[in-house]
Amino acid sequence: MSKFISVGKILNFHGIQGEAKVGFSKNQQDFFLSLDRVFLQTGSDYKPLNISKSRINKNFAIVKFDGINSINDLLPYKGMLLFVEEETIRENLDDDEFLIDELVGLDVVDESGKKLGFVIGVSNNGASDLLSVKTNSKRVSLVPFVKAIVTGVNLKDKKVVINNLEGLLE
User: Fold this and answer.
1) Residue 46: partners with Cβ closer than 8 Å, 6 or more residues away
2) CA-based torsion, 54, 55, 60, 64: positive or negative
3) CATH number reported for the structural domain that contains residue 35 in this entry
4) What is the pTM of this model?
């Protein structure tokens, strides 16, 4: 069974031809525009929606779905999340990109292998992703997910290696 990951939300209609105004994650417009199919969750099932065209308008996507040709056709979907299969996202990840759920729970170690804490979350401040790290002293510190600080991620060994600069984790 496929795992699905949310990539956007139908916020409203756009015009009268059944186009949807869709919100999506920041800095993901190229990925979103590359999609030709998304899914809506209905109960425990996922209903496919084929995308006939999409474009960016300000900070939103305007999406035309096959078979939705009026406001009335679109209104039942207003407020619903759009999903893609996990494999679709994995195909588009660069070597240094990861899914959030892959990073949460990983041990954080320094370059000598000393455990400093573990990842409890990932957020974004607009400039970069931030790892929320619960340290050995039970404090939560934000670590910028940039190559100068995060020097390696090993999913197999469940470790994130960081350059522990003075004051970073306390």
Assistant:
1) 2, 4, 39, 40, 83
2) negative
3) 2.40.30.60
4) 0.69
